[in-house]
Design goal:
Number of helices of chain B: 14
Mean pLDDT of chain A: 92
Helix content of chain B: 55-70%
CATH superfamily of the largest domain in chain A: Cytochrome c oxidase, subunit III, four-helix bundle
Largest sheet of chain A: none
CATH architecture of chain B: Up-down Bundle
Strand content of chain B: under 5%
Number of helices of chain A: 9
CATH class of chain B: Mainly Alpha
CATH superfamily of chain B: Cytochrome c oxidase-like, subunit I domain
Strand content of chain A: under 5%
Helix content of chain A: over 70%
Bound molecules: protoporphyrin IX containing FE, copper (II) ion
Mean pLDDT of chain B: 96
CATH topology of the largest domain in chain A: Four Helix Bundle (Hemerythrin (Met), subunit A)
Shape of chain B: globular
Oligomer: heterodimer
Strand order of the largest sheet of chain B: 1-2
Chain lengths: ~300, ~525
């Protein structure tokens, strides 16, 4: 509830309009690029957005250093970030939902089975779907042989290997496990950094924030290695049916968010050398760290539902 | 802070003022309303008689698709955001929106997004032609190449909605004047708080849906392709998980508008304020768990059919509470029938009618007959046009004098009301009969026995369309030459902080928050 007066309302600003223009150009360019036409417009849009964001954040930081924002405005920023993260959660929810749907319903039905015995009365319908459309297709997860292959097609060729746990004998080969360790550790290190800046210990703050960024980079590298292995050695690609689809889309969007988060933290790291952040005022850093924790939680969901339970 | 508006075009391009941004939203949405309306006229002209007269079937499909998309995302949603921008700060005693620059970004994305969407009409392959619900595989395997622009257009329009909603939530939660507790807030602010929450929750799911399409179309994934182990029905689940809350996103701010107008012209406080808040919240929460009532015919397990049927029927309870409260507010009130009140009363009657047809559709075994027929078209136009659009019209008549310090022409307003009312019902009531008789929706042609009612419907549509031009004329002539008024209250029965401000509302209001008792 508002109690302070003088809420800061900027007079006018070119930034929003420039950002909207950038987004418009990006959308047009992306539509062209995916059709195999020129990627230049997309690049132009992205560059515009990047430039605008740079100036936008600079402006906000400058305003903060000039002491313009009241405690109330800072609360608006906090809420803004919080609700933004909520919207991101819902974006991932769509893809997790798709994963659950295909695993619990779609694939079993294609294979001629009731999805949930007793509740699902689909036994007979599913059986005829299977018999008439995809005879010989067997439901399994990870899905290694697609309906298309069973019917003699070759559009969607299943993978040779899946990303599932390779067994205790080979556990140390299993990248997802290392990724989990890396990311969980990084959530802890960013927390330590936060603690440090709150106690005005800048050197410690920088050290632990730097470690966090490094862990983010390691994670990304490991994921790159995993993808490389998937494409080159396992025959697991975006095109290898619903298993590859859900695997790459979920981990891919997560990886993209890790990249964003790493970049955000890196920016905070650089800012700390310019003397930004005080023991009672480090919102830019805090917002990035919330984002980082969110990315971490999503990974946990991925680790369980994409890697372990399969 | 004490400055007036900037001069020239920069006032609009670089705006941070909630009133200016609200004005842009309102004009933009009206322009989209006319564009979408024009498409509707094309559709109704073609359907006036059986056989193909004016356009080709392929183009007809583009028209229905663009009509739906533009009306939902371009006309109704931005119109209510415009209203929120104008009113929420004034109603809760805030100096502006919480994040003024992001506010302007949310707005300016829209012209770009819709320019992109509309430009597909002139591109090779034509505009999207798969209906506003863009079911796969029509929107993937069989889509025109312009689907890619549609996808990215939806992405940025969705980003605009999310940012707009984050702004509204932050404004309401953080910028209320001292003493303005949540349960003292005008219902319009409440309904927008709930709507904004719904938007933040489901717009990302829509983004997910179009992203899956994008991947299936261009990058060989198989979300919606059974050959790769996916399922086209998955698309419908993801879409309607967004889509059903979306229809409430459209109607819930309308509830807020009606809850402001009816008390004013009944000269009684709103009956059952807190039950209104709870009922609206209940509707919002339920809206997350009923989505598959749009999918009764896709072949769900019986348990699914039953669950979604009963859950949907449950929504009638809180909806009934609201209708009951509006009627009780009017009961024994000293009612006068100015234009906003006429629209509000029509809203209550016609929205309730739409709710009833909704209940009929929610009964799974019956819906197997009604589904994808004109009965559904009639249902949702009763709730979206007589619901959302009527309430928007009411809102403009109601608050316009406050905004510009000039009174609209009451006689013209009433005329416009009656033409709209008659035109609307002549258009859509017969569509119930058509649907029950078995006429499917989204076809460019129909068999002969449907001719009479289609002709009636088309005539009604032209009348309704014309009445909107009258509305436009009335609004413009009010702004330019309406009778001046400086009465802060405008309507003697109006309550709320916005009516304590001078008329017309100054550029900056509540720079220091008022004290609310
Ligand atoms: C008591 C409240 C309501 C109930 C029980 C209800 C129920 C339904 C059902 C079961 C359908 C699916 C019909 C079919 O496709 O066979 C439907 C369609 C629809 N409803 Fe409602 N509805 C209600 C209120 C609303 C409201 C308030 C709105 C929007 C403002 C709305 C907008 C729509 C739309 C747009 C469709 C059609 C979507 C499409 O397929 O294009 N409904 N409704
Ligand atoms: Cu629905």
């Amino acid at each position: 509830m508002s109690s302070e007066s003088n809420y800061y309302v900027p007079e006018k600003s070119v930034l929003p309009f420039a950002a909207a223009t950038g987004l418009g150009i990006m959308a047009l360019g992306a539509g062209l690029a995916v059709q195999g036409k020129t990627p230049l417009i997309l690049l132009l849009g992205l560059m515009m957005i990047a430039v605008v964001l740079f100036f936008w954040f600079s402006t906000v930081i400058q305003e903060n250093m000039d002491g313009l924002p009241s405690a109330q405005l800072k609360r608006s920023y906090v809420m803004g970030m919080g609700w933004f993260i909520f919207s991101e959660v819902m974006f991932f929810a769509a893809f997790f939902g798709a994963l659950f749907y295909v695993r619990v319903f779609a694939v079993p039905w294609l294979g001629g089975e009731a999805a949930i015995p007793l509740i699902d009365d689909f036994n007979s319908e599913a059986a005829s779907t299977n018999a008439l459309l995809w005879e010989g297709f067997k439901a399994e997860w990870p899905l290694m042989i697609n309906p298309d292959q069973v019917a003699g097609g070759s559009t969607f060729v299943g993978p040779e290997h899946s990303m599932s746990f390779p067994g205790w004998a080979n556990w140390y080969h299993w990248l997802p496990l290392w990724n989990t360790i890396v990311l969980l550790t990084s959530s802890w290190t960013v927390h330590v950094a936060h603690h440090a800046i709150k106690h005005n210990n800048r050197a410690k703050f920088q050290r632990w924030l730097g470690i966090t960024v490094a862990l983010g980079v390691i994670f990304l590298y490991l994921q790159y290695a995993e993808y490389h292995e998937a494409y080159v050695e396992m025959g697991l690609t975006l095109e290898s049916g619903i298993y590859g689809t859900t695997f790459f889309m979920l981990t891919g969007f997560h990886g993209f968010h890790v990249a964003m988060g790493t970049f955000m933290l890196f920016v905070q790291f650089m800012r700390s050398f310019k003397g930004h952040f005080k023991s009672d005022d480090q919102f830019g850093f805090e917002a990035s760290s919330w984002y980082w924790h969110f990315v971490d939680v999503v990974w946990f969901g991925l680790f369980i539902f994409v890697y372990i339970l399969s | 802070m004490a400055h007036g508006p900037a001069k020239g075009i920069g006032r609009w391009l670089f705006a941070t003022n909630h009133k200016d941004i609200g004005t842009m939203y309102l004009w933009f949405s009206f322009a989209m309303f006319l564009l979408g309306g024009f498409f509707a006229m094309v559709i109704r002209a073609e359907l006036f008689e059986p056989g193909m007269q004016i356009i080709k079937p392929e183009f007809f499909n583009q028209m229905t698709t663009m009509h739906g998309l533009i009306m939902v995302f371009g006309a109704i949603m931005p119109a209510f955001v415009g209203l929120a921008n104008w009113l929420i700060p004034m109603q809760i005693g805030a100096p502006d929106m919480a994040l003024p620059r992001m506010n302007n970004l949310s707005f300016w994305i829209l012209p770009f997004g819709f320019a992109l969407l509309a430009s597909t009409l002139f591109m090779e392959g034509g505009a999207p032609n798969f209906g506003w619900t863009f079911y796969a595989p029509l929107s993937t395997t069989y889509a025109p190449p312009t689907v890619n622009f549609f996808i990215f257009g939806i992405h940025i329009i969705g980003a605009s909605s999310i940012m707009g909603s984050i702004n509204i939530v932050s404004t309401i939660l953080n910028l209320r004047a001292p003493g303005m507790t949540l349960m003292k807030m005008p219902l319009f602010a409440w309904t927008w708080l709930i709507t904004a929450f719904l938007l933040i929750a489901v717009m990302p799911v829509l983004a997910g849906a179009v992203t899956m399409m994008l991947m299936d179309i261009n990058f060989g994934t198989s979300f919606f392709n059974a050959a790769g182990g996916g399922d086209p029905v998955l698309f419908q689940h993801v879409f309607w998980f967004f889509g059903h809350p979306e229809v409430y996103i459209i109607i819930i701010p309308a509830f807020g508008v009606i809850s402001a107008i009816i008390p004013t012209f009944s000269r009684k406080p709103l009956f059952g304020y807190s039950s209104m808040v709870y009922a609206t919240s209940a509707i919002a929460i339920l809206s997350f768990v009923v989505w598959a009532h749009h999918m009764f015919t896709v072949g769900m397990p019986l348990a699914g059919e039953l669950y979604f049927m009963y859950a949907t029927l449950l929504i009638a309870v809180p909806t009934g509470v609201k209708v009951f409260n509006w009627i009780s507010t009017m009961f024994r009130g000293a009612i006068t029938y100015e234009t906003p009140m006429l629209f509000a009363i029509a809203f209550v009657i016609l929205f309730t009618l739409g709710g009833f047809t909704g209940l009929m559709l929610a009964i799974a075994p019956a819906d197997i007959q009604y589904h994808d027929s004109y009965f559904v078209v009639a249902h949702f136009h009763y709730v979206m046009v007589a619901g959302a659009v009527f309430s928007m019209t009411a809102a403009v008549y109601y608050w316009l004098p406050k905004w510009c310090g000039r009174m609209y022409n009451e006689a013209l307003g009433k005329t416009q009301f009656w033409i709209s009312f008659i035109g609307f019902n002549v258009t859509f009531f017969p569509q119930h009969f058509l649907g029950l008789a078995g006429m499917p929706r989204r076809y460019a042609d129909y068999s002969l026995q449907f001719t009479d009612w289609n002709m009636v419907s088309s005539v009604g549509a032209f009348i309704y369309g014309a009445s909107q031009l009258l509305f436009l004329y009335n609004v413009i002539s009010t702004i330019r030459s309406g009778e001046k008024t400086d009465d802060p209250k405008v309507w003697e029965g109006a309550e709320g902080l916005e009516w304590t401000l001078p008329t017309p509302a100054p550029f900056h209001t509540f720079s220091t928050p008022p004290d609310v008792k």
